[in-house]
């Protein structure tokens, strides 16, 4: 199932702001989409990592399996190209980028955020954004976190202190509006896909999130896979096939 079963119909770029990083690329399948998957790339929120390199392969695969894939770029932490992000700018961009889907002639009754590493953090955060003052004209209906940094306080040292760089200070209890671990329970299903041998983001990030979320009454599931940190975004891997199966289950439930 890792190979595309349908040809992508078209890829178009749409801006949601004036900054060069405020855009998404929409990959459409040849037929009516099953729904929309918002692809949120990782890279510890740093400017040198971008949607083209990290998100495009996933978006192509998703379109080939019948999904409208919205490969979302956003301002990241740093100066120069891709920079200008942080809190709240990065979060503002993800919220605005998702809401732009309302203008793209799509059925947004099913919107899955799919994010890797730091993108997993943003994918989970996006499902709760409306609680914390961001618009959510296009609500998230499902979340797939791929080796996500879901607890900023526990992950403070990851990526050379990337969470501190994102927030502008070390993460604390006062950062609930930015921290998925402090936002449980979500009102939508969450799948945390993670490998135990992940050397970049500890497996415990997903395991502890699911434990905390389920204790709070959320629908959260831990999916253990193999392949380290990047196996979850390798479209030829068993881990990616498992995620396609999760998405197939979404279509059956909606």
From TrEMBL:
Cross-referenced Gene3D superfamilies: alpha/beta hydrolase
UniProt xrefs under InterPro entries: AB_hydrolase_fold, BD-FAE-like_dom, GDXG_lipolytic_enzyme
Region feature Disordered, mapped onto this chain: 1-25
GO MF term list: hydrolase activity
Record-annotated BD-FAE-like domain positions: 32-209
Record key words, sorted: Hydrolase
Matches recorded under Pfam families: BD-FAE (PF20434)
Keyword Hydrolase (UniProt): yes
Keyword Hydrolase annotated: yes
PANTHER family the UniProt entry points to: AB HYDROLASE SUPERFAMILY PROTEIN C4A8.06C
Record's protein name: Acetyl esterase/lipase
Protein species of origin: Nocardioides thalensis
